[in-house]
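Key result, reporting period 2: structure in, sequence out.
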């Protein structure tokens, strides 16, 4: 039997200003931006990290964002992290706190309007309590 091991190489985002947007995400992740031409690469930070690649917009942005990042933080730290990210330039969009017993999240937008969520999962013994 063949085993497949697929890992995330990088998240690619088009940006009006790749350097600015990479700087915003570098502040969030702690990565050191690596510019090349008119694009910027952010390497993963640590073994559980993820890479990001920012390049110039090549077409108009669609009306509906079909995908977004879900970033997870330890239980009890979501609100502090959301406040930190808003301080870095993220824009608050909405909270989902009571709909699901296994997760709470806040949806934010980066400086160019790309949505992303900060989620926290309660310990199993607190789910549904």
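The corresponding designed sequence is given below.
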């Amino acid at each position: 039997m063949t085993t497949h091991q697929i890992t995330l190489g990088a998240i690619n985002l088009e940006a009006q200003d790749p350097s600015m947007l990479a700087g915003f995400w570098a502040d969030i992740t702690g990565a050191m931006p690596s510019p090349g031409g008119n694009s910027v690469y952010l390497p993963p930070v640590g073994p559980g990290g993820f890479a990001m690649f920012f390049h110039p917009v090549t077409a108009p942005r669609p009306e509906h964002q079909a995908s977004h990042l879900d970033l997870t933080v330890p239980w009890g730290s979501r609100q502090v992290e959301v406040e930190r990210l808003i301080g870095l330039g993220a824009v608050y969009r909405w909270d989902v706190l009571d709909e699901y017993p296994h997760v709470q999240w806040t949806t934010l937008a980066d400086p160019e309007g790309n949505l992303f969520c900060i989620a926290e999962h309660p310990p199993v013994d607190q789910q549904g309590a």
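The chain has two domains: 9-57, 67-129. Helices lie at 18-29, 78-88. This case is discussed further under Risks and Mitigation.
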